[in-house]
Task: structure prediction
Amino acid sequence: MEKLEQLIDALTNLPTIGRKSATRLALHLVENKPHALKLIKALEDAITGVTQCELCGALSETPICPICRDEHREPVVAVVESHQDIQLLEATGNYHGYYFLFPGKVEWEKVEKLKKFIATHRVKEVLFALPPSSGNQFKLLQIKELLGNLPGVTLTQLAQGVPSGVKFENVDLTSLGSALLHRHKVEG
Result:
């Protein structure tokens, strides 16, 4: 059945979905049309209704996300590499600042956008909330160099306790929360 195979192939493109899981999902969807139609509607709504915040890059249903609009947040911005990192840091309950999504390579334009964010939100601390790895440490140093001297702004990074090379999604909330509470100033 060609159409079923196309659905299975499409599902295997999703993260962590192998052929076996994709087959189970595909069969469930074609056998349960109300579930499939509900999923189609939810996908259409998310694809058309979710965009990126113009200021921080986080997923949002509005041009400026609720976190960037919240004037009661602490004057701290966490530099993160994924939308999931934002959700996980929020879930710890230990962080009440802003976020700035910085995926991929360090580019001058992204750093300039971060500088503007720091100025407009009167940020006093830039927290590099990147999972520990040699690549992310290099990224941190590149961003620090391009930011230059920012009077009145402290640069910090998460305390160790989050294992090197592990994505936040694989770290328990207690360890992540502890790393947030014990962050330290970036030296060098």
